[in-house]
Structures are given as C-alpha cells and as structure tokens.
Design a protein that fits this description.
With about 270 residues, the protein is an alpha/beta fold. The chain has one domain (about 1-155, about 190-245): Rossmann fold, CATH 3.40.50.10320. Helices cover about 40% and strands about 15% of the residues. It has ten helices and seven strands. It has helices at about 10-15, 15-25, 50-65, 100-115, 125-130, 130-145, 160-170, 205-210, 225-230, 235-240; strands spanning about 1-5, 30-35, 70-75, 115-120, 150-155, 195-200, 245. A four-stranded mixed β-sheet has the order 4-5-7-6. The chain has a three-stranded parallel β-sheet with strand order 1-2-3, sandwiched between helices. α3 runs antiparallel to α8 and α4 packs across α6. It starts with a strand and ends in a 19-residue tail after the last strand.
C-alpha cells in the first residue's frame, strides 16, 4: 500500500516502484489523504479542482496497475507553511486531523488488504509540505495499529539532487521563490537511504502517470514541477527518474537494498 497526501504525489515519488510491484504480481493499493483541491490549476467553467484531480488519480493508478484506490476525504491544507492560518484552511484540513483517528482509518484499509508493506514519507515530508508531514505521522501510527511489518519512507537522495540543481541553475533561470539551498535540508542524506530501487524498466509508466495529472502541469505564473519534468527528453528522463529511494528505519545505517521486499542482511 502506498499512502500519499494528494493526487500526483504518487507519480513524482513512487510510480516506478508501484508499476514494478504490479508487474511482479503484487496487489498494489493507492491511498491519498486529500483530493488536492487547493492546488494551483487553470480550471474551466463549472470544473471543480478536487473532482478533476481525483479523476486524474484514477487514470494514473490504472496506468501503474493499481488494484484499488481510496481517498480518506480530508481537506487539502494548502501550499503555505503549516497550511496558513486556521481561517484559511478548510474545516477538515488534513493537517488539523486527529492523528489517531486518521491512523485508524488508514489501518482499517491495511488490515482489510492484509498489507505487507506501507510506503509513506520521511519525517520532514520531503520538502516540508504540511500534509506530507502529516502523512508520515499518520502512516507510521497506522502501520503500528495494523501490525504492518514493512514501512518504507519514500524520499529523494538529496546529495546528487542538490548538485544537479546547482548545475541546472547555470543554464536555467529558476523562479524567484525557488531557492536551491532549501534542498540542502530536504528529503534524505545518502547515508540514511536503505533502498535504491531501479525502476528504469518502468519509466514509461511513470512518465504516463505524471502526464495523467494534466491539471498540475499548469497554473501559477511560472513553470510547474510536473510540466518541467515532462519536458525532459525520454532518454534523459529514464536516467534521471530511473531510481526511487526509500528509508526503512528498522534497518541499520549502511543497508543497501534494491527491492522493497529485500531482507537485510541478504
């Protein structure tokens, strides 16, 4: 089971792993906490962003081979740090949810599915989005309630990422609000990563998953992350996005695994 905050998060962080496990015959379940209704997008008359993003989520899940998709139904807390003020957030914002209550809802699905593995985020929520931090808290507690043995924290190896961004900054003018230095404390340092999963064989599905979230490729005054990623030539895309990283906290530093179900030591 893969637990994400919003539709499109699965495409960015875990799509290759999901496609790989589905191809291997595993039952893959995707759960999102919110419909992502406070994201940026250019919507047509009468269109609701949350409804549109859930439709895109189902399309993405089908492309990845998911057997089941669930939304816990919490409100999107928004993009600002800590979700902005309480007045700005919806009444049922995920960041304001009772952790135990949300964990029990997720645990019920884990138990129903008899899930052997749950993928969540690292404690910082990757780049610090409040809903991503809440996914970590809720997911960690849900796994304990359900007795799910394997908990993987989806992350990014920040060391090569920072080097790549600094190099890209020589050729590409990033938006004014984009500060490469913020990534020096985001995601996970190389030495803490326990799983480096080679998903190059599944980058076609991963790219299609990203493309399914078309509403998130537009909106705002600058290029969106998805739009930029989808402009990467396919040969380079396969190389850049061909690895997905995870941290399993019950394994020692120095563990180097290549598959979610690998045991340590091998």
């Amino acid at each position: 089971m893969f637990f994400h905050a919003h539709p499109d998060d699965e495409a960015l962080l875990t799509a290759g792993t999901m496609a790989m496990l589905a191809a291997e015959g595993h039952r893959v379940v995707l759960v999102v906490a919110t419909a992502g209704e406070r994201g940026l997008a250019e919507m047509g008359p009468g269109e609701e962003l949350g409804e549109t993003r859930l439709k895109e989520l189902y399309e993405s899940a089908a492309l990845l081979g998911c057997a089941r998709v669930e939304c816990l139904g919490y409100g999107d807390s928004g993009l600002s740090p800590q979700g902005g003020s309480a007045e700005e957030r919806p009444d049922n914002a995920f960041i304001d949810a009772d952790t135990e209550e949300a964990a029990k809802a997720l645990a019920a699905i884990l138990q129903e599915e008899e899930a052997e593995l749950l993928a969540i985020y690292d404690p910082a929520g990757g780049y610090g989005h409040p809903d991503h931090v809440q996914v970590h808290r809720v997911g960690k507690r849900a796994a304990k309630i359900a007795g799910t043995e394997i908990v993987l924290e989806a992350t990014v190896n920040r060391d090569p990422l920072v080097r790549l961004l600094k190099l890209a900054g020589r050729f590409y003018k990033f938006p004014p609000e984009f500060d490469v230095r913020t990534f020096e404390s985001a995601y996970s340092a190389s030495e803490t990563i326990t799983h480096r999963v080679n998903v190059r064989k599944y980058t076609k599905q991963k790219r299609a998953s990203m493309a399914a979230h078309s509403s998130q490729a537009s909106g705002g005054e600058t290029d969106r992350t998805l739009a930029v990623m989808l402009k990467v030539p396919r040969v380079i895309y396969r190389f850049v996005f061909g690895t997905e990283w995870y941290v399993r906290r019950d394994l020692p530093l120095g563990a180097r695994l290549t598959h979610p179900f690998d045991r340590w030591p091998k």
